[in-house]
Amino acid sequence: MFFIQRKPKISASRKLMLKSLMVAKAKEELEQEIVDKEREKHSYLAERAPSLNVGHMSVAQLQDLCRELHAKIDAVDEERYDIEAKVMLNTREIKDLSIKVLDLRGKFKRPALRRVRVSADAILRSLLGSKHKVSMDLRANLKSVKKEDTEKKRPVEDSDWRKNVEAMSGMEGRKKMFDAAKGSAQ
What we know:
This protein has helices at 12-48, 59-105, 120-128, 147-153, 165-168, 170-185. With 186 residues, the protein is an all-alpha fold. It is extended, with a radius of gyration of 42 Å. It starts with 11 loop residues before the first helix and ends with a helix. The mean pLDDT is 79.
């Protein structure tokens, strides 16, 4: 079966012209939307917060006005707090539901992990930050042990290990080994 390539119904220049017209129309609508929002904002503010003429007011009237404004501010803060709490609750619920959806779907995308070799200095630098100059020489912290000291502490037994197997077998032998180790530690 042969597929015949169809010629496009609209030429490339026509497509380009239509795209430019669509972009121009979208730009005009966006500008109009911005103007409408500004107009709506000004009308809302004029309705909610009328301009104040405080020049002819006495001190008592100014204090009453301040109390009214504080009461309005408190009411708005309470509303804002309630709305924030609802938003946080909804976002938590959305997160839980998305986790449930993933669980029900049963597909978890696990990224392929690569083994990375990092030196101790690089780990400390990443934990402490680049400002701290830390070099970790692990061998400097080790105790130096002389071979002569280890030979003096451990007496050499020339006895045959096979003779001692029967004496050390069972619970009695384990108790002897435990008592011997406990005695040498003290």
